[in-house]
Amino acid sequence: MHNVMLILKFSYIVVVLTDLMTLSQKRLIDYPQKIKIYFSLISTYFRSTNHINGVIYVLKDVRYLIVFAKVVEGGSFRSAAHALDMSISSASQYVSKLEESLGVALLYRNTRKLSLTQDGKAIFGVAKKILELYSDNLRDYRNVSRRGGSKLRVAIPAILINSRLVSEISSFASREPDLHLHLLCSDLHNDLIGEGIDLAIRLGDMPDSGLKARKIFMLDRVLVASTDFVRRHGLFEHPRDLQDAPWIGLTMRPSSRTFIHRDHGHFKICYNPVAIVDNVEASYRMAMCGLGLAAPPRFLFNSSDGVEEILPEWQLPPLPAYAVWPPNISVDSPVQRLISYINSQYT
Description:
The chain has 3 domains: 2-147, Orthogonal Bundle (Arc Repressor Mutant, subunit A); 149-219 and 320-346, Periplasmic binding protein-like II (D-Maltodextrin-Binding Protein, domain 2); 224-317, Periplasmic binding protein-like II (D-Maltodextrin-Binding Protein, domain 2), CATH 3.40.190.10. Helices cover 46% and strands 19% of the residues. The protein has helices at 2-22, 33-46, 49-59, 62-74, 77-84, 88-102, 118-148, 164-175, 192-195, 227-233, 280-288, 334-346, and strands at residues 107-109, 114-116, 150-156, 179-185, 199-203, 212-219, 224-226, 248-250, 256-261, 265-270, 275-277, 307-309, 314-315, 319-325.
């Protein structure tokens, strides 16, 4: 019974706080006098460690209360399960867990009907109020969301700014007039969870990070150096000749390269870079200036820039490009629509 009273007290405080937030634009003098008393009650209530622990305990039961309210409103577990898009067995289990946590029976039930116990009637008043708060606030959120449109934060490597990918993202955004797109461009990996990013495009093999990932295209690369660099260092005949040559390294990539030859298979080298940058295009620009070797995407390479391809018969393996997103993104979200759109354009 103690838990029942705890829920009643806590839920009354929840209702009061919700009303206060709703009325926050009014003057305090317009509030009923009892609201001021509730502030004192809440302050005293939360100073108690036991009550704080109890509130944490009660919060675990809020979802059970919502299911319980739906069962009573609909008159059956079947109607509640249908309304909440869950199985009948889950709805029944939630109510059983609520009864177990409270230590009282809330419903008398058999295969054909159910009825409220006296404790159930008391708890239903609380559960109904919580359900109304939940439904009203969820409806308000959806209305605001529809009016304001969806917000989508997308992070891509800066090297892809001049690639086809940005064109595809722009095309997708133009098809979604209510979409507010925020595009972040950096060759360093963003922290999706910490920075609130909905979707990232990442290059290279994906570590096991707990994020969802889908390969969407492959990025061809080419080894280049300036014409002046080749003149100073001579022609390279095999990847082993590149190990001691000046390289421009990348912060996000290891100082090694694997080359593939149609007849001679794979050959891997390691090198000590003369410079390290955190931007792929910057490495290409430095290669144009004759500082060292670089391996930009093929779409960036242009012989008119004063650079030439090195060892064209030995190819660098293409980098896979992955769409990466948090695991709890819904299937009908703009994130999933964008991923599907990009994938369809590259296949």
